Amino acid sequence: MEKSEVRMPDSGICDKLESCGSWRIWRAMNAVMFTFFLLAGYVNLNDPDWYLWIPIYGVCALLCLPLIVKPEWSYSKIWNTVAVIHLTFCLSYAVYQVVLLMEAVSGRLENPLQHEEGREAGGLLIIITWLIIGRFTQIGRPVKMSNKYMMNALLLMAVTLTFIPLLTWSLCFVGDWHKRLGHCKGMF
Which neighbouring-strand residues pair with 13? Predict the structure, then answer.
């Protein structure tokens, strides 16, 4: 196989990456999600906790951008590392949002999207799903990933996850944040 050829698992050999149909579709999907994440960040400008949501959506938009320009960047160590760390933070924050949603609903049978916590959990679900598709599936990748890459990603998630409790706890000691952050109530 020549350097300019890439073996696609489903379609044989493509002469150039740009001519592969699945790569064009993957680029288009990333363009749509890039737009969605930018708009989602924009509508959160007036949110009381904008400082959380703009970076959450912004990182996702930034992860989509290189895949629009050059889809093979999904092999980049930097891209994969940022995707795994962001996924881990979003998974952790989703657990927190579900707890807040349960408190808001307090046992009543309601549409969770009527509550801000439900909408935020829904946004996190979209982010988590997109990051899992982009990082852990074969979609948009010309060759199969090895188990080594999966194990490295899981290790990075585990390492990141170990620091999240310390990080969230330490936020309670920043200024008067302990009065505003729900998980800090009753600490002082």
Answer: 7
Determine the Cα–Cα distance for residues 183 and 115; give it in Å rounded to an integer.
Answer: 19
Among candidates 117, 160, 125, which has minimal Cα distance to 168?
A: 160
Instruction: Say how many residues make up the chain.
Output: 188
3-state SS of 136-166 is HCCCCCCCCCCHHHHHHHHHHHHHHHHHHHH
- What residues contact residue 49 under an 8 Å CB cut-off, 6+ apart? none
The answer to whether 96 touches 140, Cβ cutoff 8 Å, is: no
Say which amino acid occupies 158: A
Is there a contact between 32 and 43 (Cβ–Cβ < 8 Å)? no
Model confidence over 54-64: pLDDT tens digits? 999 999 999 99
Contact 87, 81 (CB under 8 A): no
DSSP character string of 18-67: GG-HHHHHHHHHHHHHHHHHHHHHHHTTTSTTHHHHHHHHHHHHHHHHHH
pLDDT: which is higher, 19 or 156:
156
Cα dist. 155→7, 19, 148 in Å? 29, 35, 10
Contact 115, 101 (CB under 8 A): yes
- At residue 26, the 3 state secondary structure works out as helix
Distance in angstroms (rounded) separating the CA atoms of residues 116 and 53: 12
Backbone angles phi, psi at 8, to 5 degrees: -95, 135
Is the pTM higher than 0.70? The answer reads: no
